[in-house]
Automatic annotation (TrEMBL), chain A:
<feature type="transmembrane region" description="Helical">
    <location>
        <begin position="249"/>
        <end position="272"/>
    </location>
</feature>
<dbReference type="GO" id="GO:0055085">
    <property type="term" value="P:transmembrane transport"/>
</dbReference>
<keyword id="KW-1133">Transmembrane helix</keyword>
<keyword id="KW-1003">Cell membrane</keyword>
<feature type="transmembrane region" description="Helical">
    <location>
        <begin position="198"/>
        <end position="218"/>
    </location>
</feature>
<dbReference type="GO" id="GO:0005886">
    <property type="term" value="C:plasma membrane"/>
</dbReference>
<feature type="domain" description="ABC transmembrane type-1">
    <location>
        <begin position="55"/>
        <end position="271"/>
    </location>
</feature>
<feature type="transmembrane region" description="Helical">
    <location>
        <begin position="155"/>
        <end position="177"/>
    </location>
</feature>
<dbReference type="InterPro" id="IPR035906">
    <property type="entry name" value="MetI-like_sf"/>
</dbReference>
TrEMBL record, chain B:
<feature type="signal peptide">
    <location>
        <begin position="1"/>
        <end position="18"/>
    </location>
</feature>
<dbReference type="InterPro" id="IPR006059">
    <property type="entry name" value="SBP"/>
</dbReference>
<dbReference type="InterPro" id="IPR050490">
    <property type="entry name" value="Bact_solute-bd_prot1"/>
</dbReference>
<keyword id="KW-0732">Signal</keyword>
<dbReference type="Pfam" id="PF01547">
    <property type="entry name" value="SBP_bac_1"/>
</dbReference>
<protein>
    <submittedName>
        <fullName>Extracellular solute-binding protein</fullName>
    </submittedName>
</protein>
Amino acid sequence: MAFLFLVPAFVAFGVFSYWPMIRGLLISFQETNLVDPATWVGLDNFTALVRDPLLYTAIANTLLFVGLGLLIGFPAPLILATVMSTVRKGAGVYRFLVYLPVVIPPVVAILLWKWFYDPGHGLFNELLGLIGAGPLPWLESPRTAMLSLVIQSTWAWMGSTVLIYLAAMVTIPAELYEAAQMDGASIARRLWHITLPQLRPTIGLLLLLQLVSTTQVFTEPYVFTDGGPENSTLTILLLIFRYAFRDGAYGQAAALAFLLAIFLGLMSAIYLRATRTWGSA
Amino acid sequence: MKKITASLGVAILATAVAACGSSAGSGQESGTVTLRVQGMPPATDKPGLAAFEKMVADFEKQNPGIAVEGSSAAYDPLTFSAKLAGGKVEDVIKVPLTEPQGLIARKQVKPLTAELAKWPHYKEFNPQVLRPLSDSGGEVYGVPQSPFAMGLVYNRELFEKAGLDPGKPPATWEEVRAHAKRIAEKTGKAGFVHESKNNQGGWQLTKLTYAFGGEMEKQSGDTWVAAFNAEPTRQALTLLKEMRWTDDSMGDNQLNDQNDVIKRFAAGEIGMYLGTPGTYRLAKMTYGMPNIDAFGIGPLPQAGGNATLTGGDVYMVPKSASAEKTAAAVKWLLFAYAQPQYDTGAAAERAKALAADPNAAVGVPTLPMFNEVRQAQIDEAVKPYVNVKLEHFQPWIEGTPKLQLRAEPPVRAQAVYAVLDSVVQAVLTDRDADVNTLLGKAEADVNAKLAASRQ
C-alpha cells in the first residue's frame, strides 16, 4: 500500500528527472541529429571534449567563480546576519531590504547591473568618478569581468542565505550569550566561541549548496557577457550550452554534463564524509 | 497487493511517457495535409497578420487538400533541438542566413531541389541567393524571403551634425575610420560599432576580411583549414584596434551582438554599423526608432576585396516532415515567398496590403531573387505603396551590384565565428592585444575544430 503513495512522486521524478538523465547519459555515447536514429560512437564525444582547449578554459573559469564566490559570497551573508541579529529596532525592514534582490527575477537584475557596470556612464563608474577614481572596465576586460559577475551574484543570492543564518541564530540558547557576557567576553569572542560553533551544521550545509550552485553558474555569464571578453567568463555550463545549442554537438554536450554531474557527486560525497562529525560536535 | 500496486505504478508511468511522446498537433483529416508554417506575423502586427491570413486563404483555394496553420514562432536555437527531438517542430521554419549551413551539415533539414524543380521558373532563381542554402553538391535546402547583401548602415542625422555628407557614405575603410573619428569628436556618440559576441564578432570580421580581399577557410587536400591568419584579416583587426584605442571612435561598450547594436542605433547612439537594409525593419518596428528617416545605408566599404557577404531570412523544411508534407511545404514556399518576387500582380497586391499599416516598412530594397530585369519590374509594381525613403537606400542599391556576393565560410562557419569572437573581443577590450598572436592562436583552434569535424 505504501508504494501506491509513492507513485505520483515516482512518475514525476521518473518522467522529468530520471528519464532525461538516463537519456543524457545515452546521448553522450552517441552521435545524433535528433531526427535520424542515433549512432553509437563509443568514447568519441569524450575524446573530442578533452581535445577542446576551451574545456580547460571553462574549468579554470568555473573554479575561479567558485573560489571568488567562497571568498566574497560566503562570508558576506554570515557577517551581515551576525550584524542584523544584534539589531533590535526595525529588524523586519532590514530583512526585507536584504531579501529584496532574491525576489527580482535574475535576468532583470542582471540587465539592471549591466547598466551599473556600463564603462561609460554606468552607476559604478559615475560613483567612482565622484571620489576621483576609475573608471573601471568592469565587464569589458578579461581581468575584471569574472569579479564583476561574482559581486552581482553575491548581491542577488545573499538574501536567502542571510535569512537561513538568522533563523539558525534564533535557535542558539540565549543562556550561552548571557554566561559569556557575565564572564566579560567581547562581541568578537562571543561570535567566535558561541555563534560560529553553534551554526556549524548550517554553515556546512550552505557551503555545500553554494559549491554545487556556483559550479553550475550559467545565467550570469550568459546574460552579462556571453562568456567574453576573450572567453574569460566562459563557464562549464555555458560551454555545454554552446555545444548543444550553437554547434548542435548534442553528444559532446551530454558528455560534459555527465562528467560535471560525476564531479559534483564526488565532491559532495567527499565533503559530506569530511564534515560528518561537524553536526554532532 | 505489492505486485498489483507495482504494476499500477508502471502502467501510470508508461501512460505518462506515452502521452508525452504522442503527437498532439498532427491534425490530419482524411485526404488533407495540414502544414504548420513559421513566418506568420505576430498578433500585434494586424495588417501583416491580415495579409498573411489572406495569403493562406488564397493558397488553400489554389491547393485543395492542403491546410496551412500559421505560427508566429521563428527558428530559435534554444528550442529548435527540443522541438525537433519531440517531433513538434513546424513543417516550415524561418531561419536567419547564418544558420542553414549548420542545419544542412547536421542533416536536420530536407533537400528540396527535386520538389523546387517542378516549378517552371525554378531555373531563373538568382544562383547567388540560393548558394548559401545549398550544400557543396548543389542540392538546395530552402527558399529565401528577402535576400540581402551586407552594407554599411549609418545615421544620417549624426552625419549632418558631424558635418559629413549624408548622401555620400564612406566607400573605403579609410573613410570609415575618418568618418567615425569625426562623429565621435563632434557628437560624442560612437562613430562605428563592431559586434563581438554570440558568434557575431566572427561573422562581422568575415565581412571585413572579404572587404580586405581575404578568405576565412581554404581547402588543403581533403580537408578545410583556416585561411584568416593572413594580411587581409590582420589589416582589418589592426584598423579596428586603431579606431578603438588611437581614435577612440567606437564608444565605451564593446560587448555587443546585432540586437544590442540596432537597439543603440535606434536610440541615436551609434553612427555606423555593418548590416543589411533589412535591419531598417528592426530599427523601426522592433526598437521604434523615432527618426527612422535618419536611417541610411551604403554598400560595404572596401579595401581591395571588392566583395560582400549575403544575409537575410530563409525558409527551410525540417527533416522530421514527411514526403507528403515536404511537397506541400515547397508549394507553400513558392507561393508565399518566390511568386511575389516573380509575379508583378502578386507583388503589388502584397505591398498594398502591407502598406495599410503606417508602422510597416514597405519597399525595403533586396537583392534580386531572380534576375535584375524581373526585379526592376517588381520594384515598379510596388512603387505606389513604398513607404520607406528609397533615396536613403540608393547608395546601397547602386553600390552593391559592383561587389562580388560571397557566402559564409563553407565548413562549420559558426565554430569559426565562435573562435573569432574572442579575437575581436581582445582587440576591442585590451589595449595591448597583439593581433598576430591572436590570429595565430585562433588559426590553431579553428584548424583543430575543422579537423575534428566529422563531415
